Amino acid sequence: MTTQFPWAHATHPDWRMAASLCLAQIEHASRTETGRQATLGFLYLTDHFAEASDDILAFLRERTGITHWTGAIGVGVAAGMAEYIDEPAMAFMLADFSPDDFQVFSGKSRPPAREARTPNGRSASWTALVHADASTPDLPELLQDMAGKIAGDTLFGGVSSSRHANALIADGIFAGGLSGVVLSENIQVESRISQGCQPIGPVHRVTASAGRLLNRLDDAPALDVLLRDMGAPTEWAPSIVQGVPVAPDARKQQAASTVQMLQGTFIGFGEGDAFLRGNYPVRPLVGVDPHERALAMGAELDDADHVVFCRRDRHAAQVDLIRACTELRETIETRYGSMDRIRGALYISCLGRTGTLFGGPSAEMQLVQQQLGDVPLIGLFANGEIYGDRISWYTGVLVTFL
């Protein structure tokens, strides 16, 4: 079996005690080859420890001898099957990457150039773990710029979430902008994104739109297409959205049911091939125009030419997370021969997914760990999830190192 990354997590009001508990958990790893040769630490802290983040990083550097660290602060962190929400906690994982195969970056340290090479001739800027400060203006543009600096695979990561000052960890404590670690082509990474919802119908082609307004799909009124996907009669739509009580009682009852269905509707959008990969942004349906039979969504369409209507509830979230994990497992087993090749994993989830969406405390992490098996797993509950060149919300980003 592949040697796994040492990892640890703990909760305690005193950060020194929490850090010491974590170090005690990985003490045995210091006697293994991976522990002795660790070169990079992934560190996530809850915002209860925001003011002590400088001291925590210095303490861990001194005790582990590891110089390079990357991470962020969130209202919640995760590890294994545990979720620590709104309590003082930390989680970290230690990797033994070759120093030639990673570079921590921040506002004070640039990432390697897109064309940079490792000593063995492979790309030095293949993929990147990125953390962002939520208070930074123009984050979408910064992410697109960062994605342009990556020669191969996708970006992944999250936006810090904190009720205090946001903090990013990148060989120091920073505020603002982006930070993280760029990984070379020599580091094998596989990732997936879970949208937390399920399509309720087929993918539709956008044939008329303006800004956030969907006018026609597949050459038919967008509202009619949505109602057909929902199994609702399209002829009742004007009375439904205007609330005009002109239908008989039976029709009123069905109209009310349709209104309730509309309130839980989301719209996934993107270019055609995005739907094959499950990598597309999802935004809520925010309104309808009964006269034009058009739909208003919570984002600009930009260059999107296809949409799919979705539902987000507990069942849909569970099914989609299992779907993402299953696809990841199949890819790993096909390319690498066995899930035993996983050395460690990161999971960045939306803070809005905590609580009842998955059925109770820690239910989301329990599902991820059950799907992956017994592998080192830590994560962050973010204020937005980074995958590709954009920020998503209410999603879960799962990353494995092999």
UniProtKB/TrEMBL annotation:
Biological process (GO), any one: positive regulation of proteasomal ubiquitin-dependent protein catabolic process
Domain FIST C-domain: 222-389
Protein name: Small ligand-binding sensory domain FIST
Domain FIST as annotated: residue spans: 37-221
